[in-house]
Amino acid sequence: MAYGRFAHLYDELMSDVPYEKWMSYVKQYVPAKGASVLDVACGTGTITQLFMQHGYNVTGVDLSEEMLAVAAGKVGDKVPLYAQDMSQLDIGATFDVVTIFCDSLNYVLDEEDIKRTFASVYEHVKQDGYFLFDVHSLYKIHDIFANETFTVNEEEISLIWNCFEGEYEHSVEHELTFFTKDEQNDYYHRFDEFHVQRTFEPAQYIQWLEEAGFEVVSVRAEYGDEDVEETSDRIFFAARKNK
Questions:
Q1: Which of 241, 243, 238, 232 lies closest to 28, judged by CA?
Q2: Is this model's pTM higher than 0.90 or not?
Q3: Hey, what CATH class is 139-198 in?
Q4: 176, 194 in Cβ contact below 8 A?
Q5: pLDDT tens digit sequence for 180-223
């Protein structure tokens, strides 16, 4: 599932996201020093740009052409960007670390597609390299998102975000309605997007990672800083390729 027009508003609406915490998490496993990174589901390129600023050699991948267009405006021609499905990566290179951050893996709804994603990532990780990703917890899907409404009301943009229990087990449907101001005509344009996310028990992700050939070295919460608890919000996985 790819972002559409939302891509061009994403950075404004997500301006308070602590992207540096993802960078600190990566540095626990792969210090920069010229290390190579494949930033899968790179979105608008904010973390991609941070990788570059912190001294990593980074390549970005995203399914959404709209997201990649925004990313290209940030990184220019310094970072190769590819429009690819994460379950069918074909970069022609291996990397010291592959990342899938900002709960992007939760957009993969089918179990077999997650397995294919892990297998595809495995082929792009160097020997003794790392695969790092985060997902929403079950608690966040069922107790924070489901049947809730979130709003943003700014001068230039407003958002009504309705969340419902999804069709799949442990999934949530996001109905997003945007109103963006037209400065020339002093009225607002409306557009809608529909997104679905799904998550699984940590033990299930561990099983799939091991089936793909990875050794799981860490499962932590909140950017790797806390133990996983029943009410943890975001779960971080670190897996190493050592076969």
A1: 238
A2: yes
A3: mainly beta
A4: yes
A5: 887 777 778 888 889 999 999 999 999 999 999 999 999 999 99
